[in-house]
């Protein structure tokens, strides 16, 4: 008989293929004992027989049986061939149609007989039961680990796995705990700070790639990876299980829970532009400044060459901010940007600016965070009550809508009570120099936070007049106390 050998192992963590090599050796010995000629060998290493993942060598083996290249098959045991009764029936059908002989090391199953098929089915059923029992044990084990706050799998980016030691310095158990990696943890902290300063994911990613900072398991960063990392509960020392935070972790925190909550709120905000919304604003006051005539938003307009109908002379008009609604108000972009930037830098250079932005409303922030935690707990209780048929779907919907609205309000209060980190980083020292180093996204965020800019109409052909640009400080900042224009 022309025999094929099929070998498989579910996990080969070390990548040495020793498991499948031992199976092949035993199967060759069994084929030799039976006097079968080995025609083909099929090996699926590090692939489960119970998942939907395709086993390429298994499929090739079935095709070779159907084409007549092999008429016997040697496996170490039935569960190496398959662990699902459904797949086993496919093999039995091939045996009926093509006369396939099947041998397993240490046993003999003849699929051409009813007794042989019965024994194969019994072995397949037992293998399936063992898989289900193993899955149940593993799920309970993983849940227990999660409830204890212990890590699972490999250390994620930003951490390194260290052993757990007792008071005498001896290693306890084989699980260990995750500590913050000094370099990678610093990268995550930097990204978090910059995102909370309203810098875009894309700009942070581009900067990391330009600085040759390798991403997790890849050379280059992208916005999706960075967003996923920043929203990991583990960064705040929290343990997640099946997509839900269930408590504190043994993992060392990269940043506080408050920072994690603020990042999640910011990155999941529906008003935040998606990756498919096109590029963001490229100029300081586009979509920020408003028209003093109609109230429409000003947009940046490229400079163009105009030809005088009277003289025929051409003149190059500079880039400008133009009203996108009435099209009747236009000002030179460089002059407006310089004026608004100068006003902000001058005010933040005053001595009282340090005290103004060095503090935040800690009590309000803590109260708002407690409200959000309480609302989350109520949402969990409502979900449990619905699952236990204590409340109806309509009641759950009404409860959820009210609680989520309250959470949005609490979250806004929490974010408003946080220190204005971008502005706080500007005050003191060389404000102009620090402003120049800020990315455009952050500069725009500062402008939006501090002032409103209105560009008033003026006669055609007049020189730029600073008085036509009205800069008003936002009411929640007592910045106009010294001089309304500063």
TrEMBL record:
<dbReference type="Pfam" id="PF00239">
    <property type="entry name" value="Resolvase"/>
</dbReference>
<dbReference type="Pfam" id="PF07508">
    <property type="entry name" value="Recombinase"/>
</dbReference>
<dbReference type="GO" id="GO:0003677">
    <property type="term" value="F:DNA binding"/>
</dbReference>
<dbReference type="InterPro" id="IPR036162">
    <property type="entry name" value="Resolvase-like_N_sf"/>
</dbReference>
<dbReference type="InterPro" id="IPR006119">
    <property type="entry name" value="Resolv_N"/>
</dbReference>
<dbReference type="InterPro" id="IPR050639">
    <property type="entry name" value="SSR_resolvase"/>
</dbReference>
<dbReference type="GO" id="GO:0000150">
    <property type="term" value="F:DNA strand exchange activity"/>
</dbReference>
<feature type="domain" description="Resolvase/invertase-type recombinase catalytic">
    <location>
        <begin position="2"/>
        <end position="149"/>
    </location>
</feature>
<feature type="domain" description="Recombinase">
    <location>
        <begin position="156"/>
        <end position="273"/>
    </location>
</feature>
<protein>
    <submittedName>
        <fullName>DNA invertase Pin-like site-specific DNA recombinase</fullName>
    </submittedName>
</protein>
<dbReference type="InterPro" id="IPR038109">
    <property type="entry name" value="DNA_bind_recomb_sf"/>
</dbReference>
<dbReference type="InterPro" id="IPR011109">
    <property type="entry name" value="DNA_bind_recombinase_dom"/>
</dbReference>
